[in-house]
Amino acid sequence: MMCLLLALGLALMCGTQAVNVIQTMENLDIQKVAGTWHSVAMAASDTSLLDTESAPLRVNVEELRPTPQGDLEIILQKREKDGCAKEKIIAEKTEIPAVFKINSLGENKIFVLDTDYENYLLFCMENAADPEHSLACQCLARTLQVDDEVMEKFNRAIKPLPMHIRLSFKPTQLEAQCRV
Questions:
Q1: What is the torsional sign of CA 114, 116, 121, 127?
Q2: pLDDT reading at 106 higher than 70
Q3: CB of 45 within 8 A of CB of 163?
Q4: Is 80 exceeded by the pLDDT of residue 108?
């Protein structure tokens, strides 16, 4: 009976771990993601990551620039107490084409979940150094007009993940976002 309870407990633990595995896109062509993007939806595992306009991961991605080394330069806007600030983050390539690491922010990784290169890109950033393993995801669009199908893809992509806050923006809100 003890062996059965132990086996059941292990099966439940493994089952909950499998739910939080991030599924990345296969065969990402980093050169095709280059260009202008707009953050149209965000979700996070920890409410404090997005709950205010100046929250740590409430950023607006403006542009993605692949480097000759295969890394990804991310240009973003972040609201600070004195206004808006433009930041550049270098996401370093890994052995997996859709996974990048960000050394300047600790043990963070970016996972590209899905993209059609022309309309949308879905990605998540994981902070592995955080004891609670925080996770934040964004839906990017090439234009301010986003169709329902893209938002549905984002919702399906984050559904198995432990998200506790979700934000989406209307085109008028996107136009008013932090711009420098």
A1: positive
A2: no
A3: yes
A4: yes
